[in-house]
């Protein structure tokens, strides 16, 4: 049996009524709005449900049955929507009266992120990890043996000057270089060695745009049979290309460090840069250093290097003042 056009239209109007009523109750945000929706849809005198009920009279017997069933379902749905709105409303009301308004949007947490120096360190670990270098660690409070003696730095060497170091009591000091970790690694394992060490070092320098009494270094050490200066240059060049970009050039300048022979200063020049910038020192591990840790210098050779993390980070990001890296100014840090 098919329904008359007017019956079909009446049913469609019921669907429409249900949709409108349910969403009106769902959207009602306070008790006044809930009451307004109640009057509009469920009001006893002129509510829309009441009007829909009156339409029943105009339908024939068959349509009445279908319409009546549907009408009851819509009524139930609207009453449930009203109840839902009321209980939501009373929760809001009690929360608001407790001095806590759950309808307010709330404070979004500010998300933090890693400090640019930490990002640099992590990236260096990643790059050297791809070259097969493991990460080694050593203490920041170090003894004179590891900071100087074992590194072939003689007792009268100017690097030991009390004005250039933070000496502590009991033969201890704040390490002035991460080269200390080379010694600690070699004391604890036989060759071959392929490690980097990243960490803080301390020197009583006057603070300015390029100096700080504490900064970070990355130390590298590779020891094996037949390691050469060419290996050193290759590793540093690959590293510079990975971290600073393919167009970065590196240059070795003859230099002197007690723990390497020969020793070089490592300079880098990048695209658009107008001068070579010194990034650290490097060289072939001095036989005396091998002897200090019990390695046989006739059996193995090795290279070592030490670069400044701040310099690398500043170069990478175009930061022109080292102090910015230590001030924890969130407007600065949030840029990285
Ligand atoms: N330790 C040196 C410094 O702090 C840097 C350095 C130079 C490290 C040569 C090395 C090296 O491993 O071979 O100035």
Task: Describe the structure in brief.
The chain has 336 residues and is α+β, with helices and mostly antiparallel strands.
What is the string of helix and strand elements?
HHHHHEEHEHEEHEEEHEHH
Radius of gyration: 39 Å
Stretches with pLDDT under 50, minimum 5 residues: none
Which CATH architecture of the largest domain is right?
2-Layer Sandwich
Task: Summarize the amount of helix as a percent range.
Answer: 40-55%
Task: Give the strand tally.
Answer: 9
Indicate how many domains the architecture comprises.
2
Structure description:
By secondary structure, this protein is an alpha+beta fold. It has 2 domains: 5-97; 116-333, 2-Layer Sandwich (BirA Bifunctional Protein, domain 2), CATH 3.30.930. 43% of the residues lie in helices and 20% in strands. It has helices spanning 5-27, 31-42, 48-54, 61-97, 116-130, 144-147, 179-188, 229-244, 287-292, 309-317, 330-333; strands at residues 134-136, 141-143, 172-174, 193-202, 214-224, 249-257, 260-269, 277-285, 301-308. A 7-stranded mixed beta sheet has the order 1-4-5-9-8-7-6, with helices on both faces. It has a two-stranded antiparallel sheet with strand order 2-3. A hairpin with a 2-residue loop joins strand 6 (249-257) and strand 7. Helix 1 runs antiparallel to helix 2 (31-42), helix 2 packs antiparallel against helix 4 and helix 5 (116-130) crosses helix 10. The radius of gyration is 39 Å and the shape is elongated. It starts with a helix and ends with a helix. The mean pLDDT is 93. 3,4-dihydroxyphenylalanine is lined by residues 177, 179, 219, 257, 260, 280-283, 304-306.
